[in-house]
Design goal:
The chain has 282 residues and is α+β, with helices and mostly antiparallel strands. The chain has helices at residues 6-16, 70-73, 76-84, 105-114, 169-174, 205-220, 226-241, 249-261, 266-279, and strands at residues 21-25, 29-30, 87-90, 97-102, 119-122, 127-132, 138-142, 145-148, 154-155.
């Protein structure tokens, strides 16, 4: 069996068992959209819940490209992607699964004392705990813990060990917890209010929303230098909105989600955010 085709053979095996698969390139991230689908100009894949279907045969749209169709997996565009792929990804939610991604030893110790035992797969730094059942995905539900299920992808690292159990309420409850609070620097100066407005102009919904949307777009359309792009986007948002307290947990979650969709880990996102704050003296 050719080494370059091994990911494709593994993908076909997983797809036959009902697991939607996709190729992951270097960095363990999905292949970017083709020019015709850039910025979702095509309307998106049907399972992305966006208007209009996309008939592009290429490996587009990250987790939404995941498929169990062998004809797609061996099609010319996908075959070319498999030759460049470094591993196989899958869409847990599409297989009615939830992956609790434990990033380090502390997270694993917490899970062993807090969650029901289930199938376990070793990762580079931690473990994947896999439960039967789907739920909304959520990052950074607690230190070193991400939940990957619907509208997310995970790297396939083997069948694992142990018996898979049903998704417990304890895991579902994790997703309702808020992301880390964004704190303004104690010494930061307030942004002057506009004439007669009596409040910070950064709190204008349209102005703030435009800034966040531009940062998210900057990240999601990046084709290279992802680390630098994420840092630059975080720096731009913080320089404009970080000193007046207008940023909320929801805004930060949108930025982190965009970065993680491009393959950044939670740790990279947190480091980039903290480095940007340090650069600005916050």
């Amino acid at each position: 069996m050719s080494d370059t085709l091994y990911p494709q053979h593994l993908a076909l095996s997983l797809a036959a068992s009902g697991v939607p698969v996709l190729p992951l390139r270097r960095g363990k991230v999905p292949f970017g959209n083709c020019p015709a689908c850039a910025d979702n100009a095509c309307g998106g894949r049907p399972n992305m819940k966006t208007p209009g279907p996309c008939d592009c045969p290429d490996v587009c749209h990250a987790w939404a490209a995941a498929t169990t169709d062998p004809a797609v997996i061996v099609s010319p565009p996908w075959r070319a992607a498999w030759r460049r792929a470094v591993c196989v990804g899958y869409h847990p939610g599409g297989a009615r699964l939830t992956v609790v991604d434990l990033d380090d030893a502390e997270a694993i110790a917490w899970a062993r004392g807090s969650l029901p035992a289930t199938r376990t797969v070793p990762t580079t730094r931690g473990e994947h705990w896999i439960y039967q059942g789907a739920m909304p995905s959520s990052n950074a539900v607690r230190p070193g813990v991400d939940i990957k299920s619907s509208m997310s992808y995970a790297r396939y690292l083997g069948p694992g060990t142990g018996t898979m159990t049903d998704l417990p309420d304890a895991v579902r409850a994790l997703a309702v917890k808020k992301p880390p609070t964004v704190r303004s620097a104690p010494h930061a100066a307030a942004v002057p209010a506009g004439p007669g407005s009596g409040e910070c102009p950064h709190r204008t919904p349209a102005y703030l929303e435009r800034g966040i949307a531009m940062a998210v777009q900057r990240i999601t359309t990046a084709r290279s230098a992802i680390h630098a792009t994420v840092y630059g986007a975080f720096l731009a948002v913080l320089s404009r909105h970080g000193r007046c307290g207008c940023l909320t947990d929801t805004h930060v979650a949108r930025l982190f989600t965009a970065a993680q969709t491009k393959g950044e880990t939670l740790r990279h996102c947190t480091d980039a955010w903290n480095n940007a704050r340090t650069t600005l003296g916050m």
